[in-house]
Specification:
It is built from three helices and 18 strands. With about 350 residues, the chain is mainly β. The protein has one domain. The chain is elongated and about 85 Å long.
Protein backbone atom coordinates (compact mmCIF):
# COMPACT_ATOMS: atom_id res chain seq x y z
CA UNK A 1 0.00 0.00 0.00
CA UNK A 2 2.77 2.44 0.91
CA UNK A 3 4.72 1.66 -2.23
CA UNK A 4 1.55 2.02 -4.33
CA UNK A 5 0.97 5.48 -2.85
CA UNK A 6 4.45 6.64 -3.81
CA UNK A 7 4.33 5.15 -7.30
CA UNK A 8 0.88 6.58 -8.04
CA UNK A 9 1.82 10.09 -7.00
CA UNK A 10 5.15 10.08 -8.82
CA UNK A 11 3.56 8.71 -11.96
CA UNK A 12 0.74 11.26 -11.92
CA UNK A 13 3.03 14.24 -11.49
CA UNK A 14 5.56 12.97 -14.02
CA UNK A 15 2.88 12.10 -16.58
CA UNK A 16 1.26 15.52 -16.15
CA UNK A 17 4.58 17.30 -16.53
CA UNK A 18 5.77 15.37 -19.56
CA UNK A 19 2.54 15.07 -21.55
CA UNK A 20 1.73 18.73 -22.11
CA UNK A 21 2.81 18.78 -25.75
CA UNK A 22 6.33 19.52 -24.55
CA UNK A 23 7.84 18.18 -27.79
CA UNK A 24 6.34 21.04 -29.85
CA UNK A 25 9.02 23.43 -28.58
CA UNK A 26 11.45 21.60 -30.90
CA UNK A 27 10.10 23.84 -33.70
CA UNK A 28 11.92 26.70 -31.95
CA UNK A 29 15.29 25.35 -33.22
CA UNK A 30 18.17 27.12 -31.40
CA UNK A 31 15.65 28.80 -29.10
CA UNK A 32 14.11 25.53 -27.88
CA UNK A 33 16.46 25.10 -24.90
CA UNK A 34 15.96 28.64 -23.60
CA UNK A 35 12.18 28.40 -23.94
CA UNK A 36 12.08 24.96 -22.29
CA UNK A 37 14.28 26.09 -19.41
CA UNK A 38 11.95 28.96 -18.55
CA UNK A 39 8.90 26.71 -18.88
CA UNK A 40 9.94 23.81 -16.59
CA UNK A 41 12.08 25.75 -14.10
CA UNK A 42 9.50 26.12 -11.25
CA UNK A 43 8.48 22.46 -11.45
CA UNK A 44 12.08 21.25 -11.29
CA UNK A 45 12.95 23.57 -8.40
CA UNK A 46 9.90 22.44 -6.46
CA UNK A 47 10.90 18.80 -6.88
CA UNK A 48 14.37 19.47 -5.52
CA UNK A 49 13.05 21.27 -2.46
CA UNK A 50 10.58 18.43 -1.85
CA UNK A 51 13.34 15.84 -2.00
CA UNK A 52 15.26 17.50 0.82
CA UNK A 53 12.28 17.56 3.18
CA UNK A 54 10.71 15.03 5.48
CA UNK A 55 13.88 13.46 6.82
CA UNK A 56 13.07 14.01 10.51
CA UNK A 57 10.25 14.58 13.00
CA UNK A 58 12.46 14.72 16.09
CA UNK A 59 16.08 15.26 16.99
CA UNK A 60 15.92 12.23 19.26
CA UNK A 61 17.59 9.13 17.83
CA UNK A 62 16.40 5.56 18.29
CA UNK A 63 17.79 3.19 20.82
CA UNK A 64 20.01 0.47 19.36
CA UNK A 65 18.01 -1.42 16.69
CA UNK A 66 14.91 0.66 17.24
CA UNK A 67 13.20 1.48 13.96
CA UNK A 68 10.46 3.47 12.26
CA UNK A 69 8.53 3.50 9.00
CA UNK A 70 7.39 6.95 7.86
CA UNK A 71 5.02 8.11 5.12
CA UNK A 72 5.72 11.77 4.47
CA UNK A 73 4.16 13.72 1.59
CA UNK A 74 5.67 17.15 0.85
CA UNK A 75 4.39 20.08 -1.18
CA UNK A 76 6.67 22.89 -2.34
CA UNK A 77 4.65 26.06 -2.82
CA UNK A 78 5.42 27.83 -6.10
CA UNK A 79 5.20 31.64 -5.78
CA UNK A 80 2.58 33.25 -8.00
CA UNK A 81 5.38 35.24 -9.64
CA UNK A 82 6.74 31.95 -11.05
CA UNK A 83 3.49 30.91 -12.73
CA UNK A 84 4.54 32.98 -15.75
CA UNK A 85 7.86 34.01 -17.22
CA UNK A 86 8.72 37.16 -19.13
CA UNK A 87 9.14 36.74 -22.86
CA UNK A 88 11.85 39.13 -24.03
CA UNK A 89 12.22 38.99 -27.86
CA UNK A 90 15.88 40.00 -27.49
CA UNK A 91 16.55 36.67 -25.72
CA UNK A 92 15.43 34.66 -28.75
CA UNK A 93 16.71 34.52 -32.31
CA UNK A 94 13.65 33.21 -34.15
CA UNK A 95 10.58 33.55 -31.91
CA UNK A 96 7.83 36.12 -31.46
CA UNK A 97 4.44 36.28 -29.78
CA UNK A 98 1.23 37.57 -31.38
CA UNK A 99 -0.57 40.76 -30.34
CA UNK A 100 2.39 42.12 -28.42
CA UNK A 101 2.11 39.57 -25.60
CA UNK A 102 5.00 39.68 -23.14
CA UNK A 103 4.61 36.59 -20.91
CA UNK A 104 4.08 32.85 -21.17
CA UNK A 105 2.85 30.27 -18.63
CA UNK A 106 5.30 27.99 -16.88
CA UNK A 107 4.62 24.33 -16.20
CA UNK A 108 3.44 25.37 -12.71
CA UNK A 109 0.86 27.85 -13.97
CA UNK A 110 -2.82 27.38 -13.14
CA UNK A 111 -3.92 29.58 -16.03
CA UNK A 112 -5.89 28.23 -19.01
CA UNK A 113 -4.24 30.82 -21.23
CA UNK A 114 -3.39 29.56 -24.72
CA UNK A 115 -0.60 31.32 -26.59
CA UNK A 116 0.73 30.61 -30.06
CA UNK A 117 4.47 31.08 -30.56
CA UNK A 118 5.57 32.17 -34.04
CA UNK A 119 8.78 30.78 -35.54
CA UNK A 120 10.66 32.44 -38.41
CA UNK A 121 14.13 31.11 -39.28
CA UNK A 122 16.21 32.59 -42.15
CA UNK A 123 16.46 30.06 -44.98
CA UNK A 124 18.22 31.92 -47.77
CA UNK A 125 17.32 34.15 -50.75
CA UNK A 126 15.16 36.35 -48.51
CA UNK A 127 12.97 33.42 -47.45
CA UNK A 128 12.25 31.94 -44.05
CA UNK A 129 11.34 28.61 -42.50
CA UNK A 130 8.04 29.39 -40.79
CA UNK A 131 5.95 27.53 -38.25
CA UNK A 132 3.93 28.10 -35.10
CA UNK A 133 3.12 26.01 -32.05
CA UNK A 134 0.91 26.28 -29.02
CA UNK A 135 2.85 26.88 -25.85
CA UNK A 136 2.13 24.01 -23.40
CA UNK A 137 -0.15 24.91 -20.51
CA UNK A 138 0.59 24.52 -16.83
CA UNK A 139 -0.53 21.75 -14.47
CA UNK A 140 -0.79 23.64 -11.17
CA UNK A 141 -4.59 23.62 -11.27
CA UNK A 142 -4.51 19.82 -11.04
CA UNK A 143 -2.18 19.78 -8.02
CA UNK A 144 -2.87 20.45 -4.33
CA UNK A 145 -2.26 24.07 -3.26
CA UNK A 146 -0.89 24.79 -6.76
CA UNK A 147 2.37 23.30 -5.51
CA UNK A 148 4.77 20.52 -6.50
CA UNK A 149 3.88 17.38 -4.48
CA UNK A 150 6.19 14.48 -3.72
CA UNK A 151 5.42 11.65 -1.27
CA UNK A 152 8.19 9.77 0.45
CA UNK A 153 8.22 6.42 2.22
CA UNK A 154 11.29 5.88 4.38
CA UNK A 155 12.60 3.61 7.11
CA UNK A 156 14.93 4.47 9.98
CA UNK A 157 17.09 2.18 12.11
CA UNK A 158 18.94 2.94 15.32
CA UNK A 159 22.65 2.08 15.28
CA UNK A 160 25.20 2.09 18.10
CA UNK A 161 26.71 5.46 19.09
CA UNK A 162 23.24 7.10 19.07
CA UNK A 163 23.03 7.30 15.30
CA UNK A 164 20.05 6.63 13.02
CA UNK A 165 20.39 5.55 9.40
CA UNK A 166 17.41 6.44 7.22
CA UNK A 167 16.65 4.97 3.80
CA UNK A 168 14.32 5.89 0.95
CA UNK A 169 14.19 3.31 -1.80
CA UNK A 170 12.07 2.50 -4.82
CA UNK A 171 13.36 -0.02 -7.40
CA UNK A 172 13.12 0.72 -11.09
CA UNK A 173 9.37 0.35 -11.80
CA UNK A 174 7.53 0.77 -15.11
CA UNK A 175 4.12 2.40 -15.29
CA UNK A 176 1.42 2.54 -17.96
CA UNK A 177 3.83 1.00 -20.49
CA UNK A 178 5.16 4.49 -21.19
CA UNK A 179 7.67 5.28 -18.48
CA UNK A 180 9.59 4.28 -15.38
CA UNK A 181 10.61 5.74 -12.07
CA UNK A 182 13.24 4.89 -9.45
CA UNK A 183 14.32 6.56 -6.21
CA UNK A 184 17.02 6.09 -3.61
CA UNK A 185 17.98 8.20 -0.63
CA UNK A 186 19.98 7.86 2.58
CA UNK A 187 20.57 10.03 5.63
CA UNK A 188 22.45 9.79 8.92
CA UNK A 189 21.22 11.51 12.07
CA UNK A 190 23.63 11.69 15.00
CA UNK A 191 22.74 12.69 18.56
CA UNK A 192 24.84 15.58 19.88
CA UNK A 193 23.19 15.78 23.29
CA UNK A 194 25.23 12.82 24.54
CA UNK A 195 28.34 14.99 24.44
CA UNK A 196 26.64 17.88 26.26
CA UNK A 197 25.32 15.80 29.17
CA UNK A 198 21.68 16.71 28.57
CA UNK A 199 20.38 13.16 28.08
CA UNK A 200 18.25 13.45 31.26
CA UNK A 201 16.25 16.35 29.77
CA UNK A 202 13.41 16.15 27.20
CA UNK A 203 15.53 18.43 24.98
CA UNK A 204 17.43 16.70 22.16
CA UNK A 205 19.84 18.09 19.59
CA UNK A 206 21.33 16.37 16.57
CA UNK A 207 22.92 16.83 13.19
CA UNK A 208 21.59 15.24 9.99
CA UNK A 209 22.99 14.83 6.49
CA UNK A 210 21.14 13.19 3.62
CA UNK A 211 20.80 12.84 -0.13
CA UNK A 212 18.10 11.58 -2.51
CA UNK A 213 18.30 10.52 -6.18
CA UNK A 214 15.22 10.40 -8.39
CA UNK A 215 15.00 9.26 -12.01
CA UNK A 216 11.87 9.51 -14.17
CA UNK A 217 11.69 8.56 -17.86
CA UNK A 218 8.60 9.05 -19.98
CA UNK A 219 7.97 8.09 -23.60
CA UNK A 220 7.02 10.95 -25.94
CA UNK A 221 4.28 9.60 -28.16
CA UNK A 222 3.31 11.06 -31.51
CA UNK A 223 0.27 13.36 -31.35
CA UNK A 224 -1.99 13.01 -34.44
CA UNK A 225 -3.36 16.51 -33.82
CA UNK A 226 0.09 17.99 -34.61
CA UNK A 227 0.60 17.04 -38.28
CA UNK A 228 3.95 18.78 -38.81
CA UNK A 229 5.96 16.72 -36.31
CA UNK A 230 6.77 13.01 -36.34
CA UNK A 231 8.42 11.43 -33.30
CA UNK A 232 10.66 8.36 -33.35
CA UNK A 233 11.99 6.89 -30.07
CA UNK A 234 10.97 10.04 -28.23
CA UNK A 235 11.70 10.18 -24.52
CA UNK A 236 11.78 12.84 -21.82
CA UNK A 237 13.80 12.23 -18.67
CA UNK A 238 14.34 13.90 -15.29
CA UNK A 239 17.39 13.00 -13.20
CA UNK A 240 17.56 14.77 -9.86
CA UNK A 241 20.00 14.65 -6.97
CA UNK A 242 19.29 16.63 -3.79
CA UNK A 243 21.25 16.82 -0.56
CA UNK A 244 20.86 18.54 2.79
CA UNK A 245 22.77 19.24 6.02
CA UNK A 246 20.69 20.16 9.09
CA UNK A 247 21.13 21.05 12.75
CA UNK A 248 18.12 19.77 14.72
CA UNK A 249 16.52 20.38 18.09
CA UNK A 250 13.38 18.93 19.63
CA UNK A 251 11.44 19.05 22.87
CA UNK A 252 10.19 15.48 23.26
CA UNK A 253 7.31 15.25 25.69
CA UNK A 254 5.21 12.14 26.24
CA UNK A 255 2.23 13.16 24.10
CA UNK A 256 3.67 15.84 21.87
CA UNK A 257 6.99 16.73 20.27
CA UNK A 258 8.07 20.15 19.06
CA UNK A 259 10.95 20.13 16.62
CA UNK A 260 12.97 22.58 14.53
CA UNK A 261 15.89 22.54 12.14
CA UNK A 262 18.15 24.96 10.36
CA UNK A 263 20.53 24.10 7.59
CA UNK A 264 21.52 24.13 3.96
CA UNK A 265 19.86 22.50 0.96
CA UNK A 266 21.19 21.98 -2.56
CA UNK A 267 20.20 20.05 -5.63
CA UNK A 268 20.78 19.59 -9.34
CA UNK A 269 18.54 18.27 -12.12
CA UNK A 270 19.10 17.16 -15.70
CA UNK A 271 16.16 17.37 -18.09
CA UNK A 272 16.64 15.82 -21.53
CA UNK A 273 14.40 15.43 -24.56
CA UNK A 274 15.75 12.53 -26.59
CA UNK A 275 14.85 10.85 -29.86
CA UNK A 276 14.40 11.86 -33.50
CA UNK A 277 11.91 14.62 -34.34
CA UNK A 278 10.94 15.04 -37.99
CA UNK A 279 9.67 18.59 -38.59
CA UNK A 280 7.91 20.30 -41.50
CA UNK A 281 8.31 24.06 -42.02
CA UNK A 282 6.66 26.28 -44.63
CA UNK A 283 8.98 28.42 -46.74
CA UNK A 284 7.76 32.01 -46.96
CA UNK A 285 9.15 35.29 -48.24
CA UNK A 286 9.06 38.62 -46.44
CA UNK A 287 5.52 39.26 -47.69
CA UNK A 288 4.20 36.01 -46.26
CA UNK A 289 3.89 34.26 -49.62
CA UNK A 290 4.30 30.49 -49.25
CA UNK A 291 6.84 29.03 -51.71
CA UNK A 292 6.79 25.46 -50.51
CA UNK A 293 7.86 23.38 -47.54
CA UNK A 294 11.02 21.88 -46.15
CA UNK A 295 11.51 18.84 -43.93
CA UNK A 296 14.29 18.22 -41.42
CA UNK A 297 15.06 15.89 -38.54
CA UNK A 298 16.63 16.89 -35.24
CA UNK A 299 18.06 14.37 -32.77
CA UNK A 300 18.15 14.72 -28.97
CA UNK A 301 17.18 18.38 -29.26
CA UNK A 302 17.03 19.56 -25.64
CA UNK A 303 19.42 19.14 -22.71
CA UNK A 304 18.88 21.35 -19.65
CA UNK A 305 20.68 21.67 -16.31
CA UNK A 306 19.26 23.23 -13.14
CA UNK A 307 20.70 23.93 -9.69
CA UNK A 308 19.28 25.23 -6.41
CA UNK A 309 20.94 25.97 -3.09
CA UNK A 310 20.33 28.02 0.02
CA UNK A 311 19.62 28.16 3.73
CA UNK A 312 16.35 26.97 5.23
CA UNK A 313 14.55 26.79 8.55
CA UNK A 314 11.92 24.29 9.69
CA UNK A 315 9.43 24.18 12.54
CA UNK A 316 7.11 21.26 13.25
CA UNK A 317 5.12 19.32 15.75
CA UNK A 318 4.36 15.62 16.25
CA UNK A 319 1.55 13.93 18.14
CA UNK A 320 2.75 10.74 19.89
CA UNK A 321 0.09 8.06 20.26
CA UNK A 322 2.24 5.20 21.44
CA UNK A 323 4.07 3.74 18.45
CA UNK A 324 1.79 5.72 16.09
CA UNK A 325 2.85 9.29 15.24
CA UNK A 326 1.17 12.12 13.33
CA UNK A 327 3.29 15.11 12.32
CA UNK A 328 3.38 18.30 10.29
CA UNK A 329 6.07 20.89 9.56
CA UNK A 330 6.71 24.04 7.55
CA UNK A 331 10.05 24.93 5.95
CA UNK A 332 10.97 28.49 4.99
CA UNK A 333 13.19 28.65 1.89
CA UNK A 334 13.00 29.91 -1.70
CA UNK A 335 9.99 27.63 -2.28
CA UNK A 336 8.40 27.20 1.14
CA UNK A 337 7.52 23.55 1.79
CA UNK A 338 4.73 21.91 3.75
CA UNK A 339 5.46 18.44 5.07
CA UNK A 340 3.26 16.06 7.01
CA UNK A 341 2.37 12.44 7.46
CA UNK A 342 2.34 9.48 9.77
CA UNK A 343 4.99 7.20 11.27
CA UNK A 344 5.16 3.89 13.07
CA UNK A 345 8.08 4.02 15.51
CA UNK A 346 9.42 1.32 17.83
CA UNK A 347 12.29 2.02 20.19
Amino acid sequence: MKKALLISALCFVSHSALSQGFETVVFAAEDASKLSEDYVNPFVKGFMYDMNSGWYTTAKTHNKFGFDITITPSISLVPSSDEFFDFNPNDYRHLSLPNGETSLPTLMSSSDQTTMVNVSIPYGNDTYKVSEFEMPKGIAGDLPLNGVPLPMVQAGLGLPTRTDVKLRFLPNISFADTGEVSLFGMALQHDLGQYLKISSLPLNIAVLGGFTNLKVNYAIEEDPSIPDITVNNGEASFKTTAWTLQALASLDLKIITFYAGIGYNAGKTEVDLKGDYHLVYNIEDENGTVWGAVEETVTDPISLRFKVSGMNGTIGTRLNLGFFKIFASYTVQEYNTINGGIAFSFN
